[in-house]
Known about the structure:
Blueprint: H1 4-7, H2 13-47, H3 51-79, H4 81-99, H5 105-131, H6 136-168, H7 173-190, H8 198-203, H9 207-218, H10 224-234, H11 248-273, H12 275-281, H13 289-314, H14 317-335, H15 343-356, H16 358-363, H17 366-370, H18 377-405, H19 408-429, H20 438-442, E1 446-451, E2 457-461
Domain Major facilitator superfamily (MFS) profile: 18-434
Main location: membrane
Membrane topology: Multi-pass membrane protein
Amino acid sequence: MSIRVIDEAPLNGFHRKLTWACAGGPFLDGYLLSIIGVSLIGMSNELHLTTADESLIGAAALVGIFIGGLCFGAVTDRLGREAMYTIDLAVLVGGSVLSVFADETWQVVILRFIVGVAIGADYPIATSLLAEWVPNKHRGRLLGILILAWYIGAAAAYVVGYVMAEIGGNGTWRWMIASSAVLSALVLLMRIGTPESPLWLVNKGRTEDAQKAIKHALGRTVSTNDLLAAAATEQSLQQHRFRDLFQGTYLRRTLFCGLFYMCQITPMFALLTFGPTILGSFGLGKGNAGNLGSALISVVFVLGCIPALRMVDRIGRRPVIVWSFALMAIPLVVLGGGSSVPFAVVIACFCAYALFSGGPTVLEWTYPNELFPTSIRATAGGVATSISRVGAAAGTYLLPISLSRLGIGATMLIGAGITLVGWLVSVLWAEETRGRTLAETSALPAKTKQRSPAGEEQREPVREGEFGGS
């Protein structure tokens, strides 16, 4: 639905505070998923981990994200963004604290899975809440900032891991994990007092609460009739269900969001989780120096997001995602040369991949929030996350095996192939949503053209179950 006072509001202190509060979760996600790659070095020595154990630990959180996104996106649409917003962070704190005391491989795997569930829940919670509060013309950029926070968290994890390893050696892996518990607690405190989404409140018939939330956050008064009209515009009161994501036009959108997301993060997650190992395979940064190299690459991922944040709201979502995927494949093909690739070229290729990946990266959470109505917005975001994690978990689990059996060159070429699939999916299915309200972007496409009495062209909406094109 579309509430005019929200869509047209100027950015103020509330929007900035909400953006930072929502970004806290993705920051933690990047930190938690990357710190394990650093701590695995010391953990492996102390717990006598095999290659299979390391792969299982690396993939456990991603499997948890699959479950968390699939289940808790729908729960968020039922219970509300605000309630789930706090619960999942409390789980992150608890899982991180318990991980410090793990003495067996199975304990680490289970706790990483639990942390992953909480991370998977946070993606649709934070992104849907922010999307439903921010003005149209700033939505792409502000949602992209959440992704930026993810990479900052990943870079911070490698820097912290590097410093801790230098000071205390490999035995400090427990303190590395403990650092994530402290950060989780701080973000939890920062989120206290975050208001519920007015769109979700109206969708549930709580117009009075929606009016109060808007008045408190924006200092503006909205009539009950305006809120009901906004709901009718999007037809949210129809209350879409989970199964609607797999029918008609919504099926295409679900597949698009999940598949491009998967193709973008499968090589990226493998790179960030096993960054030191991959760089070591190229003969670069063995030992703790590999953590510093991984931190540098993570920083470049951040830098790649910055121009993309401006481009998605200026030139549009579709051209950004199509061209970015095409350019991302090139450095991975070059790295297919394996260990024979010169040192300078390896670094240049990793940096180029990181820079070009900014486009799809900032759209990972933008597209799911724009292409689906309020009643299933968080559900759709969760499903897209879950689809993406199928590839990410498989890639993370198989990467060490691929490195040992196929070699670094073949592994990089596989990554290039996955990236090209993402390009094809974007060419076929990417829609343009720049500058439009959530009501417009989530509406089903028009089927036929008619003429109004005034001679203006009108469109007849596609019925709910019909499969439409872009």
